[in-house]
Amino acid sequence: MPDSKVMLITGASRGIGKQVALDGAREGIAVVVNYVASEAGARGVVDEIEKAGGRAIAVKADVSVSDDVDRLVETTMKHFGRIDCVVNNAGVGNVVALDKLDATQFEKTLRVNLLSAFLVSQAAIPHMKPSGGRLIFMSSGAARTGGIISAAYAASKAGLEGLMHYYASYLLPHRITANAIAPALIESDMTKNVKLPPPERLPLGRIGRPQEIWPTVRMIMETEYLTGQTIHLDAGRYMT
C-alpha cells in the first residue's frame, strides 16, 4: 500500500492517541505511534495494527524537545516517505489547585501541551507542502471555560488553538489545513484522576469514549474546505 496516507500521532501509546491510531489503521492509513515513556504500550498498538494487516511504527521521542522531534520526523520520512496528517495529541493534565500551582509546573504543562505541537508541526510542514496535508490539534473545552484540571492546562489549550489559527491562515496556499478538536471528559487515564460531574449533569448521562474521536479526525482529513476551526466533541456540553 505504497500510496496510503501517513498519519503521525503524538502521545499515541494510550488513551485518545491510541484509539485514533487503531481506527486510522483500520481504514488503511499508515501510522506513526509516538511515545515518550510507555514502550510496551506503543509496541502493543503497533502489534495490534500489524496483526490486522496494517502498517505502523513506534517511535520514542519527547516531543517537547527539538532534537527528539527532528528524529521523529526523520524516522517517519525514512519509513514511509511522506506525512499527510499530524495529530498533536501529546499532553499532560495534572489536577493542581490554583494556590498550589507554581512556575515549574506551569512551564512543564506548556512545554508538553503547547510547545510540542509547535515543534512537531514546524518539523512536519516542509514535508507536507508538496502535496498538502492536515494539522490536527487536540484541544479541550478548558480553553474556553477554564475547566477543572488547572490554570496551566487551560492556558496551554487556549494557546494551542491560537497556534492552530495562525497555521490555518498562513498554510492554506499550500493546501495544508489546521483544525482543533476539543473533546470533553473522555474516558482516559487523565479523567481517572478528575472528580467527574454526576451522570445527571452530563448531556448523555455519561462521559465520552475514545472511539468517538475518530469520525471527526476522518472528516477533517477528508475535507479540504475546513480550516481554522475548533470542533467541540462534547455532546453539547459547550455550545457555540
Report on the architecture of this protein.
The protein has eight helices and seven strands; from the N terminus they run βαβαβαβαβααβααβ. The termini are far apart. Helix 1 packs parallel to helix 2, helix 3 runs parallel beside helix 4 and helix 4 packs parallel to helix 6. The protein has a seven-stranded parallel β-sheet, sandwiched between helices. The chain has a single domain, classed as 3-Layer(aba) Sandwich (Rossmann fold), CATH 3.40.50. The protein has 240 residues and is an alpha/beta fold.
Task: Briefly summarize what is shown.
With about 240 residues, the protein is α/β, with parallel strands linked by helices. It has helices at about 15-25, 40-50, 65-80, 105-130, 140-145, 150-170, 190, 215-220; strands at about 5-10, 30-35, 55-60, 85-90, 135-140, 175-185, 230-235.
Keywords for this entry:
globular, alpha/beta, seven-stranded parallel sheet, Rossmann fold, 240 residues, 8 helices
Itemize the secondary structure elements and their pairings.
Elements: E1 6-9, H1 15-26, E2 30-35, H2 39-51, E3 56-60, H3 66-80, E4 85-88, H4 103-128, E5 133-138, H5 142-145, H6 151-171, E6 176-183, H7 189-192, H8 214-222, E7 230-233
Parallel strand pairs: 1-2, 1-4, 2-3, 4-5, 5-6, 6-7
Q: Would you tell me the overall average pLDDT?
A: 91
How many separate domains make up the residues? 1
Q: What would CATH call the homologous superfamily?
A: NAD(P)-binding Rossmann-like Domain
CATH C-level: Alpha Beta
